[in-house]
């Protein structure tokens, strides 16, 4: 085998894989993080509701309940160390009409059993005062001050970056295809880029975690079903809902909610429908209708005319209904994480810690690195700076004075910086997710030609090789025959 | 402390901005400044390398850059100052501007401002088209920019949603480039853009147009592989069974333009929800004294020549305002959109303005009438002026002039209303 042996190989660079890599980077271990896509965090971790749940929802006693509440408590420190947007602004479960009111009591009870802090019942009048646009039929609400919101992609990118800063190796466009085994022990991972020997494998493959389980040799009928969630995004200039509003939950989901994001846009969603295809993140007319109807139940004044984007994400819904977190007996050298659906984002920091603990117990001796640096320094975001700070930034590098995306005020300096980080953006979507460029009203109409130019220059490739999201998604096809010649 | 003081600051250098700067200078304003975020003057015209510009003003058939150059030469000849690569970030109601110029922030105080920021294209998100989100979905204007300015093709096999002018012009351009345009689909029962463009760009190149059709699905994971079109009923709902898969690698959108007014709002300028642009009076002044507006930022025009005229009007009055620092008359007649009128400009009109010269009303109809019609202007229910048109279409702006002699007919009225009726 050509490759040096890794102590740990993590399969999948979603929020779970990246936070796990970062947690392990604290120890003297050779860690390799594999991701089949062209960027980290392009699975469920980028297309979700971005809520750091308080924990009143999961059934008491489950992994979901336990890791939700434990995970929730870790977010302030995490956001402080990794410098991503996070706001613990609290959330509301809103009962509409008297018949929904008793469900709030159930949630309260469940929350107490799960150890949730900061719960308070508020009256209909109080709810109307706090959210003037709320449906006038509101009958009461559960207010939970420990709920939060974040920029989920920023969490993944920052965690991956911090891991790489601390010597984790990240390989993108590298898919785990099979394992090398010695008896029951996994001793290597076979990928499209060669075979990598290792001592431990951690399954963080999201929708494909069931496939990985079987490849590793687990005999199980455990199955992941993709469950689609669709969303509307509203124009910040037109709709400003400053709250996180849940309806009362149904047996299979938390329902269609309306929430502000850390960037001030309002989003509505998600639906919850089981589908077959693990790659099908398309948006459907029926799904969008359902989102709109559900959102209007909370906020009747919402207008479709103010929508600027739609998207969908896939939950990895496991057949056991709970997070699977195990160091199975049948296979050695394997830590299995599967069925990490909602509240998986919230729970991810606690899940990562659980992996560390599991390795302590079963694995190699973990030795702390004295030079481990938990801080991922923030990069300047031009739009958030004061005019004085902007002037200084421009003075240090004039590329910060060139605005590429006018709706979200993103500068060339920010784009170039993202191409040269430990976890670089190499695609249009990679830039978009990191800077919010193209996410405003014009949805990239103005910036796309400029971003292609910058990516081509910085990556030293032809403009026709610049992609939206990796090989196969090239944005341009060939030089035009009749050259413009219009530089009048 | 502002670093710079000007009589008139014009934001944007498309045909509206260029004309406004020329007129302000000619009216006597001394320091006239054009601020343009692009790297050259000319606005959208720079990427419109086809002909069709200047027929009204110069009686010549010019390309966009040629047309723009005529005004750029005058701007330069008159000594108008220009700042390129400079983007205005904020304006206050007291006419202070904050801009960023290749690496530095500027603060400018203006005695008058002309907003001439043009418009942007409606995107896929605004339409909420279902399906996947692969590479290969562009607005027609972005595709135009790729080909004409960057020199690259954004695809080889196209479907086009919407039949706006830019979409039709691009359809022909793509054929010139050796690409295939499989189909254009339009949700309305009539063409969105000018008939002239329909004939010269689609009919002449055998590009099929399907009216009352829309795109209901996009397929393809990394790059567009196909779109699904369907016929729609009178409520624009897809008719089941009419779906058709059109293989293509690119979907172009030509589904409307939206005036670019985020900046105007910051200055306290009130917008008309029907046009998406500011409420203006006959001098193109907005509700904020000293702030004027012209061109596509006010309402979307179909001909750049009319944009130029609107720019002259706004610039002249901005120059006037800069010199005298006073608002015109407060006597304002409201101008109301009546039957089959989508909107009419100006929103208010000083009846005395007719003493100074003819005043033009600009309107668009709500639905097409392919038969002779009357365009009636009425004051308090009494006919003031009427004009006949052989047909009316939403894509073609209608202009009607009130001559000075009509002054007497409107002087006591509270409002003017405009309606379009079929001649019987
Ligand atoms: C619609 C929706 C809404 C949600 N809302 C919330 C919420 O508000 N709050 C909350 O806490 N949680 C929420 N969740 C859940 C949360 O998003 C997920 O639990 C979390 O993102 C899971 O992270 P992950 O790393 O396990 O999976 P993913 O992010 O899917 O990452 C798995 C990664 O593994 C890679 N991979 C797979 N197979 C291979 C292979 N063979 N080789 C290499 N790489 C591979 C994939 O490409 C992917 O990048 C929501 C989920 C959805 C879908
Ligand atoms: C994408 C597109 C393609 C078109 N193609 C055609 C065509 O092929 N044929 C045709 O006849 N008509 C076309 N038109 C319409 C026609 O060109 C317009 O009617 C005309 O150019 C409008 O002139 P304008 O001056 O109002 O705006 P524009 O020409 O759009 O000029 C506005 C200018 O303002 C600048 N600006 C905006 N905001 C700021 C700011 N904050 N700070 C500084 N500068 C700013 C912009 O960079 C731009 O240069 C097109 C329009 C668009 C939007």
TrEMBL record, chain A:
Stretches assigned to the BFD-like [2Fe-2S]-binding domain: 403-455
The molecule here is called: Glycerol-3-phosphate dehydrogenase
State the superkingdom.
Bacteria
A family per Pfam:
Fer2_BFD
InterPro entries per the UniProt record, alphabetical: BFD-like_2Fe2S-bd_dom, BFD-like_2Fe2S-bd_dom_sf, FAD-dep_OxRdtase, FAD/NAD-bd_sf, G3P_Oxidase/Oxidoreductase
SUPFAM superfamilies recorded: FAD-linked reductases, C-terminal domain (SSF54373), FAD/NAD(P)-binding domain (SSF51905)
**So where does this one cross the membrane?**
none
Instruction: Recall the taxonomic lineage recorded for the source organism.
Output: Bacteria, Bacillati, Actinomycetota, Actinomycetota incertae sedis, Candidatus Hakubellales
Start and end residues of each FAD dependent oxidoreductase domain: 7-357
From TrEMBL, chain B:
InterPro entries (alphabetical): FAD/NAD-bd_sf (IPR036188), FAD/NAD-binding_dom (IPR023753), Metab_Enz_Cyan_OpOx_G3PDH (IPR051691)
Signal peptide annotation: none
A GO molecular-function annotation: oxidoreductase activity
Q: Specify one Pfam family.
A: Pyr_redox_2
Domain FAD/NAD(P)-binding, by residue range, is 7-304
Q: Does the keyword Zinc apply?
A: no
Show the coiled coil region(s): none
Keyword field = Oxidoreductase
Report the protein name in the record. FAD/NAD(P)-binding domain-containing protein
């Amino acid at each position: 085998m050509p490759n040096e042996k890794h102590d740990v190989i993590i399969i999948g660079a979603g929020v779970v894989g990246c936070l796990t890599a970062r947690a392990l980077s604290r120890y003297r271990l050779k860690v390799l993080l594999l991701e089949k896509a062209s960027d980290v965090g392009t699975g469920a971790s980028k297309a979700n509701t971005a809520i750091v749940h308080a924990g009143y929802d999961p059934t008491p006693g489950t992994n979901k309940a336990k890791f939700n509440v434990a995970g929730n408590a870790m977010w302030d420190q995490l956001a402080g160390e990794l410098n991503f947007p996070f706001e613990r602004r609290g959330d509301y479960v809103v009962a509409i009409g008297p018949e929904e009111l008793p469900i709030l009591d159930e949630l309260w009870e469940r929350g107490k059993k799960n150890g949730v802090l900061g719960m308070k019942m508020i009256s209909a009048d109080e709810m109307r005062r706090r959210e003037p646009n709320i449906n006038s039929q509101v009958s009461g609400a559960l207010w939970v001050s420990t709920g939060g919101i974040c920029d989920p992609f920023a969490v993944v990118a920052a965690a991956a970056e911090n891991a790489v800063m601390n010597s984790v190796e990240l390989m993108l466009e590298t898919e785990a295809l099979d394992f090398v085994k010695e008896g029951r022990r996994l001793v290597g991972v076979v990928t499209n880029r060669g075979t990598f020997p290792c001592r431990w494998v951690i399954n963080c493959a999201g929708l494909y975690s069931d496939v990985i389980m079987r490849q590793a040799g687990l005999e199980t009928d455990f199955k992941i079903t993709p469950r689609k969630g669709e969303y509307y995004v509203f124009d910040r200039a037109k709709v400003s809902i400053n709250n996180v509003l849940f309806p009362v939950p149904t047996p299979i989901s938390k329902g269609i909610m309306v929430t502000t994001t850390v960037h001030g846009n309002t989003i509505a969603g998600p639906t919850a429908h089981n589908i077959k295809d693990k790659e099908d993140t398309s948006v459907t007319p029926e799904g969008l209708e359902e989102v709109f109807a559900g959102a209007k139940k909370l906020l009747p004044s919402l207008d479709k005319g103010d929508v600027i984007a739609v998207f969908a994400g896939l939950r990895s819904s496991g057949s056991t209904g709970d997070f699977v977190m195990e160091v199975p007996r049948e296979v050695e050298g394997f830590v299995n994480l599967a069925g990490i659906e909602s509240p998986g984002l919230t729970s991810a920091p606690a899940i990562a810690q659980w992996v560390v603990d599991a390795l302590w117990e079963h694995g190699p001796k973990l030795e702390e690195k004295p030079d481990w640096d938990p801080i991922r320094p923030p990069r300047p975001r031009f739009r958030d700076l004061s005019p004085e700070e902007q002037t200084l930034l421009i003075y240090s590098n004039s590329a910060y004075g060139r605005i590429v995306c006018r709706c979200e005020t993103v500068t060339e300096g920010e784009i170039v910086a993202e191409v040269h980080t430990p976890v670089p953006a190499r695609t249009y979507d990679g830039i978009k997710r990191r800077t919010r460029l193209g996410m405003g009203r014009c949805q990239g109409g103005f910036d796309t030609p400029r971003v292609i130019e910058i990516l081509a220059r910085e990556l030293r490739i032809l403009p026709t090789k610049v992609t939206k999201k990796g090989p196969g998604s090239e944005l341009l096809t060939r030089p035009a025959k009749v050259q413009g010649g219009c530089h009048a | 402390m502002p670093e710079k003081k000007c009589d008139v600051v014009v934001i944007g250098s498309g045909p509206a901005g260029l004309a406004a700067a020329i007129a302000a200078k000619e009216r006597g304003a001394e320091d006239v400044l054009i601020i343009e975020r692009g790297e050259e003057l000319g606005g959208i015209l720079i990427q419109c390398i086809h002909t069709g510009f200047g027929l009204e003003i110069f009686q010549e058939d010019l390309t966009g850059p040629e047309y723009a150059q005529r005004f750029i030469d005058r701007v330069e000849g008159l000594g108008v100052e220009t700042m390129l690569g400079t983007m205005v970030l904020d304006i206050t109601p007291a006419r202070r501007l904050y801009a960023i110029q290749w690496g530095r922030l500027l603060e400018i105080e203006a005695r008058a401002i002309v907003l001439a920021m043009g418009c942007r294209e409606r995107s896929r998100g605004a339409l909420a088209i279902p399906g996947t989100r692969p590479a290969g979905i562009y607005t027609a204007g972005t595709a135009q920019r790729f080909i004409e300015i960057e020199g690259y093709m954004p695809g080889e096999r196209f479907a086009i949603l919407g039949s706006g002018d830019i979409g039709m012009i691009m359809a022909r351009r793509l054929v010139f480039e050796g690409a295939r345009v499989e189909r254009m689909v339009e949700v309305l029962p009539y063409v969105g853009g000018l008939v002239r463009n329909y004939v010269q760009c689609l009919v002449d190149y055998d590009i099929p147009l399907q009216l009352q059709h829309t795109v209901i699905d996009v397929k393809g994971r990394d790059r567009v592989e196909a779109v699904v079109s369907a016929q729609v009923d009178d409520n624009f709902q897809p008719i089941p069974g009419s779906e058709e898969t059109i293989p293509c690698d690119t979907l172009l959108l030509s589904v409307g333009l939206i005036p670019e007014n985020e900046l105007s709002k910051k200055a306290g300028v009130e917008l008309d929800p029907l046009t998406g642009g500011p409420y203006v009076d006959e001098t193109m002044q907005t509700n904020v004294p000293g702030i004027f507006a012209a061109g596509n930022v006010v309402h979307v025009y179909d001909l750049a020549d009319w944009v130029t005229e609107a720019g002259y009007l706004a610039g002249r009055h901005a120059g006037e305002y800069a010199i005298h620092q006073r608002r015109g008359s407060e006597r304002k007649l409201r101008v109301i959109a009546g039957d089959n009128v989508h909107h009419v400009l100006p929103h208010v009109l000083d009846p005395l303005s007719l003493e100074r010269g003819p005043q033009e009303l600009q309107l668009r109809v709500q639905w097409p009438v392919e038969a002779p019609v009357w365009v009636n202007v009425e004051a308090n229910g009494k006919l003031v002026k009427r004009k006949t048109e052989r047909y009316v279409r939403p894509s073609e702006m209608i202009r009607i002039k009130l001559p000075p002699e009509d002054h007497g007919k409107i002087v006591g009225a509270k409002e003017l209303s405009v309606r379009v009726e079929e001649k019987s």
